[in-house]
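Thanks for the sequence, V.! I ran Neck protein right away. Repeating your input here for the record:
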Amino acid sequence: MATNQYFNHHGTNTPENRLIENLMIESIKTYGIDVYYLPKTLNNEDTLLGEDASSSFNSAHTIEMYIKNVEGFEGEGDFIAKWGLQIKDQITFTVAKRRFGELGMTTDGRAKIPHEGDLIYFPTTSALFQILFVEDEAIFYQTGQLQSYDMLCEMFTYSDQKFDTGIDTIDAIERAHSYSVDFTMNTGSGNYTVGETVYQGASLAAATVKGEVGSWNSTTKILNLLNMTGNFSGTVNIIGDSSSASYSITSFDAQQSAANTAATSSNVEIEAAADAIIDFTEGNPFGSL
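Predicted structure:
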């Protein structure tokens, strides 16, 4: 026996579908919160391991989402592990499927569904959460369609990713936590601007030594650089691409600015601690054989 032709509960784009979808969107707008959705850009993907150590977040899209955790964060919480304090707070966001599509993101299939690895900035706690899993069947085909996505997210751990979203609150996370080097500048002219690219050489296009301005103090002439490429020379001026500021260098830590120094390395701290324990001026500091 066929279903009743006058009652279509599993059709496509029916009036019932649109009604439920509109009610879902209206409910999220009423009880939800505005967040920023940050799509992840893979700049140099390792196809074997499926990761990218130089990934970046170049845009932020405002959208309303509903928080499903009514009693607080879930997950493992905060605890002391082998490598120090770990924060594993988890939260689940719900977003309307149609509203997500209206963001206009077309890269890597994001026009239809959020991606694992993307970030959500939660303004209530001023924290970034990384999407671990996207559930598209949380509400199982109500009136024949899927109206929402549930995104299980965990507190994001920064590891030298680049943020260039245009939202200063978010971009400041990179400047606060990224690996950086302070340069004490000497004579010159102009003022560097935060976020601009600086270089050494005849032009930016030909330069092999580049960096991004994290901060500039015109009084103390301390220039903080991050996202550095190449080895900076102490005898060549650092030039700002947009500000045209140009200063010679008084001093900087050449070891920290080396191109092959990992952003998370602690070789300088280890060397200083070791020098206080072992006398490396001897031929064999551990004794004679």
